[in-house]
Amino acid sequence: MTEPLLKICDLTVAASGKTILNGLNLELPVGEVHALMGPNGSGKSTLAQVLAGRSDYAIVRGTVSYQGRDLLAMPAEERAHAGVFLGFQYPVEIPGVNNVYLLKAALNAQRKARGEPEVDAFEFLGLVREKMKLMRMDESFLNRGVNEGFSGGEKKRNEILQLLVLEPTLAILDETDSGLDIDALKVVADGINTLRRAERSFLLVTHYQRLLNYVQPDRVHVLADGRVVKSGDRTLALELEQRGYDWVRAQAKVA
Amino acid sequence: MSSAPAVDGLQAYVAAHARIAESLPGGETWRAVRREALDRLLQLGWPTARDESWKYVPLRLLEKRVFEAPAAEALPVDATALTQRALSLAGARRIVFVNGTLVTSLSSPLVDPALEVTPLAQALQEEPDRLRVRLPVPGDDADQRLALLNLAFLADGAEIRVRAAASPAPLHLQFVSTGARRACHPRVLIELEAGAQASVIEQYLTLGDAETFTNSVTEIRLGPGARLEHAVIAEPDARSFVLGTLHALLGADSRLLTHRVLVSGLLSRFSLKVGLEGRGASVDANALLLADGREHLEAHSVICHRATDTRNVERFRGVAGDRGRGVFNGRIVVEPGAARSESQQSSRALLLSEQAEIDSRPQLEILNNDVKCSHGSTTGQLDPNMLFYLLSRGLDPKTARALLIYAFLDDVLARLELKDLRQQLERRISNALPDPQRIEEFL
Predict the structure, then answer these.
(1) Does some domain include residue B47?
(2) Which pTM was predicted?
(3) Low-confidence ranges of chain B (pLDDT < 70)
(4) Last residue of a domain, which of B335, B356, B382?
(5) Does B396 share its domain with B265?
């Protein structure tokens, strides 16, 4: 069996003295889409942030291996260069930093780190326009500050736009579906499906199974109290939708 | 802070005054005006730390130094070096002052049907009585002491009058200080007649390792419906002082858009006083400071609503790193007769090091109930959420930081309506930040 793209072993993480992830184990093989579900406060977003390199958390123990490398030892920007992408649950507004320039700088920083030539402005603009069309984003987004004055749905589309342009190897999407109406949800799902490839993996962090109607996962994991308490195929998501999270928790406690 | 008897610091000025008084233009009339101004200043003394708006000013730095009074003839200036240092504004008419003296050989031709520019030395000489009426005698409050000092040494400057409904090319005033320990006291009068539109940029810079003291006073008068974009850019060397007093009187439905961009200086301080005198008068007062090393930069303002339906929007943005120090002091006065006035002030400061400091002090005196006033003030470090977002996209920490600092300041630079000026200032500001080359592609 080939080495998984991402392998998390016994990951235990604390913030402000409080344990949030508690002995979490997870494997994400190359080319697969996994959904990570769980009730509020189960540690889903913390995991996403820790994987992307947020330094506000204390790693108490455990390891994370990405492409065989020690992911936790890499600073956030190196993880991005190595193909890790986090789609934020709450994309931050950065007035004064142009949306499209940031995207170009991000793409070029990654290409440079991989030893590839930088894209020129003209070529880049063509690329972005094409992807924006796919995300049904208005051209005016090109000239605005990063997420500045965007609605909730526009911010999420902008995250997927970045995903499409940066073409990461591991995409972690943190509740990208929350706060979207059904049309926007379809656009976002289409964006994700466009990128599904044999060499690319997704970790979809979500509270509801709604997104999974449009993006079909290979595996579903349930997170509770800081660890994976149950894993299964996509029917598990439907079961969770019907029965809620309590029965999984109860089962986990018995086990 | 200054605790020595105030008059001690002024003795050097008395001596300098005695040496040059006879050689200054304006005859007996103006000798008397200058003498009176000096006497008043001696009575009142320098402001002290007890005067609110001078609380943080390291005046002892200024008092410790003895500056030479301006020479009768301007010191020679390397025109090439000046061109390299000065902003280059396409289509603008430039007027160059060297140590306060208007130098026609370095300036653009001043003939223009839309406006009248008179060297102040000439006006003092030819029309001493008219100017005596035209130039107000400063009041006794602490903020007027520098204007008194300016009056006591008044020798040159410019009187600019833009004719009714005219809109001439932008005027770029370059105040160059050079030579060891030179002081100068230039004065600029800007008058826009009814319906006129103009842009005036005052740039303060030094050539050579100068250690100079520039004490300027600018008086602005806007006629009904006139519109002025006015900018001060202070970028002297790190051993020099630039202290400026700006005083504007706004007529009915006139609009002043003013920017103070303080980039450097051992002490750079600009104090703006705006009287919204006519109904519907409006001011946008922006200030930006960037204090590094041991620089001390201050922007003060007093906005007085004196008529109905007047409007004021003030923005202060400051960044301090190293041991840099910044001060914002913004006072808004709404007089009883100024019903339906609107006044907003926002002040944001960004600190990049432990020892950097920015003090911000809003003061509101509202004497009419039918007004809308608001103010907000924040001081902090770079937002960790913004920083993480940029890092997660692959930007390295230095670029991410530089970009966020720049974006913070650009909030004020973006208000510059003169496009050429905005672009050049954006470049200058980015070059003054750590790691400028990293954010080049964002500009």
Answers:
(1) yes
(2) 0.87
(3) 1-8, 70-74, 443
(4) B382
(5) no
Residues B130 and B145 in one domain: yes
B388 in the same domain as B340: no
Q: How far apart are CA A105 and CA A118, in angstroms?
A: 9
Using CB atoms, pick whichever of B385, B394, B396 lies closest to residue A92: B385
User: Of A23, A16, A86, whose CA–CA distance to A50 is shortest?
Assistant: A86
Q: Are residues B216 and B135 in the same domain?
A: yes
Q: What confidence tens digit (pLDDT) does each residue in B7-61 have?
A: 457 888 898 899 899 999 999 999 999 999 999 999 998 888 888 888 888 888 8
For B:231-250, CB contacts with A below 8 A are: none
B34-40: long-range contacts at Cβ-Cβ below 8 A with a sequence spacing of 24 or more? B34/B151, B34/B152, B34/B153, B34/B154, B35/B152, B37/B137, B37/B138, B37/B148, B37/B149, B37/B151, B37/B152, B38/B13, B38/B14, B38/B148, B38/B152, B40/B140, B40/B148
- CB A98 to CB B411 under 8 A? no
Q: What percent of chain A has pLDDT over 90?
A: 73
Judging contacts by C-beta atoms under 8 Å, the chain B residues touching residue A81 are: 394
In a domain, B371, yes or no: yes
CB < 8 Å to A106, chain B: 393-395
Are the beta carbons of A109 and B408 separated by less than 8 Å? Answer: no
Q: Which residues of A touch B397 (CB under 8 A)?
A: 75, 77
Provide the residue range defining the domain that includes B426: 383-443
Q: Is the pLDDT of residue A247 over 60?
A: yes
> A-contacting residues of B 356-415, CB under 8 Å?
383-386, 388-397, 399, 403-404, 406-408, 410-411, 414
Chain B residues lying within 8 Å of A145, measured CB to CB:
407
- Residues in chain B within 8 Å Cβ distance of A102: 390, 393, 395
Say if the Cβ atoms of B393 and A53 lie within 8 Å: no
Name the 3-class secondary structure at A176.
coil
Q: Does residue B204 sit in the same domain as residue B317?
A: yes
**pLDDT 10s digits, B289-323:** 999 999 999 999 999 999 999 999 999 999 999 99
Collapse the DSSP code of A58 into the 3-class scheme (helix H, G, I; strand E, B; otherwise coil) and give the result.
strand
Nearest to B407 among A77, A92, A94 (CB): A94
Domain total in chain B: 2
How much is the average pLDDT of A130-156? Answer: 90
- The domain boundary residue, chosen from B332, B352, B382: B382
Instruction: Establish if B2 belongs to a structural domain.
Output: no
Task: Please indicate, yes or no, if residue B28 is contained in any of the structural domains.
Answer: yes
Tokens of B335: 């007089």
- Residue range A195-209: mean pLDDT, rounded: 92
Q: For chain A, say whether B113 makes contact (Cβ under 8 Å).
A: no
pLDDT at A64: 98
Distance from CA of A83 to the nearest CA of B (A): 9
Residues 6+ apart with CB under 8 A from A226: A12, A13, A19, A20, A21, A22, A23, A24, A42, A43
**Do both B411 and B369 map to the same domain?**
no
* Chain A contact set for B348 (CB, 8 A): none
Interface membership of B49 toward A (CB under 8 Å): no
Integer CA distances (angstroms), B98 to A82, A112, B90, in order: 57, 48, 22
A148: which chain B residues are within 8 Å (Cβ-Cβ)? none
Prediction ipTM score: 0.96
Residues B257 and B357 in one domain: yes
Asked if B385's CB is within 8 angstroms of A80's CB, the reply is: no
**B126 lies in the same domain as B213:** yes
Chain A closest-CA separation from residue B430 CA (Å): 13
